[in-house]
């Protein structure tokens, strides 16, 4: 059984990395022929980096829009971020100091994450406009994340998992030396769902993760009068 | 044409976010372009036999050429942030007028044909085949978007429905289903030179008439020159400025500003149109072809600067795209940005102190300012972000004593479109135009009631035409919409007197 999971995680990692790399290359290679930053926009590259930072870290545009969605999704994303950072300790030894320091917050972050996801789920059901635009996959994605968070919290509060063993398993995975996984229900559920998430990420709306960085309305400098912007295919029009 | 039957929404103090009403605007459609409107634009005259395959092929082509298109189709997480931001949704309740609802009409087809999940699990991810019905939906709902970009302000990924609408329209036109209004106008630009189809002699006549009018009123021979070689400034302005009210009052104002600033300027028959409907139909090639006329005119007349008149999307194409489409403009005076907006020009002159302005001339009015969507969210004026909000207001405040803004969430980057932008300014789309104006009309009514505002100024030919038509539907007066430079025109004191031989008609035998 541990071998199955070892293979699953190898496959999931390959799919995630290659799938994401393929999309990033595709986005990077596709030209943006026109200057379309949503204005007022920064007039310098530094300004764009700041704008992107505010967007990625604080969800600036969403904050301008609806406060409820902002609160729920910010709770979820920031919770997830801290939880992920906390998980680093399962993969590296010795544990770096910053990771050690955030350990106590990881638990709260886990709750924040699940609560945020719950809020988003309820919003999807109860706001008629959001319900209208939701496909089955939109609900399933939230459920998947909720169950991941839930099973993770279960391991801390209900059924304690042998963390040392898990760490040995993943350490073994890196060195391909094998290792045994404790067969707890919560852990198995957690790991299975995480693998599923990793595999579907490059094929789903989770592409908003690389997408935001390539969004021309957010990543372009407002300098069209000063600097001529010309896509490769548009240049060919000029040569003909 | 028979007047469309529909109910004008009632104005109340707030625009409530409505409950969705599926299919509420499904009947809305507009005339399809005829072969003579399609072919000059290099589109097939009629719907092609293999429209399905051709449409998918075109979508693939656009996906490879526009990063915006691809990233926006992939990135939407259906968070709902945009769902209550579109004026057309607020005015019609139709969920397909929610930005994401509109995008999904195209996204579901994208997913079906271009993504793994949509190919193998269509139901799960809401993917769908491109059918005749979907095509009809595209035609209807992508002509209920004014490409105003309000949704893109609030989207956490900056997804801009305008980009999706443009792509959809290009796909439609490329399979022979273009929109008559836009494509007929573009064909007219190619044939005659401007959207309104005013030939050169008519233009010259109109401008002569303006010179006479100004002379009669002010006793100063302000010139409205056409095709003057060696002029310093080429003014490119929407052709509506040549005769429609209140546009023409704006043109009169530009002329007075140039006169007082003591600059040499000219209009051109080659570029007798600032508007560029190539943007509305999403066609880079047509947008470029229209833009190149500006370059041609500048070279032909040997000007040093290019200034654009009051027009929203025209300023977007000019400010954001002109350098790309028709540049480089290294043959112009490097001391000035290319192009400049007339408001930038006027504000510079005001700051320099070259203009004497008598604000009291506008004391009969209390003004507010409608930020035109494309100016607000797709361009800039001046050197700092947000100049597009400040400079027109500065100009208005320099020529009027009474000014009040509308509510904060309806101006600046949050401004609402007039309802007639993006190629919708046609009588066959009257219902969506009237309903889409609801948020702006609400804000206007509020500022009228609370602050005693009497007039709303705008810097866009489409806004001006749209409001002229739509204000009466809401029980307001069509003359409440004014050009910013009409206000300048009224307040400006003409100090540069002209010798009598420059007066219009001097030396002609004239008895009256």
Automatic annotation (TrEMBL), chain A:
It is found in: Cell membrane. GO terms for biological process: anaerobic electron transport chain. Residues 65-209 form the NarG-like domain. The keyword 4Fe-4S does not apply. The chain crosses the membrane at residues 6-25, 68-85, 105-127, 139-161, 181-203. It is a multi-pass membrane protein. GO terms for cellular component: plasma membrane. One of its GO terms (molecular function) is nitrate reductase activity. Keywords: Cell membrane, Electron transport, Membrane, Oxidoreductase, Transmembrane, Transmembrane helix, Transport. This is Nitrate reductase. It comes from endosymbiont of Escarpia spicata.
From TrEMBL, chain B:
Residues 67-96 form the 4Fe-4S ferredoxin-type domain. The keyword Disulfide bond does not apply. Keywords: 4Fe-4S, Electron transport, Iron, Iron-sulfur, Metal-binding, Transport. It comes from the Bacteria. GO terms for molecular function: 4 iron, 4 sulfur cluster binding; metal ion binding. The keyword rRNA processing does not apply. This is Reductase. It comes from endosymbiont of Escarpia spicata.
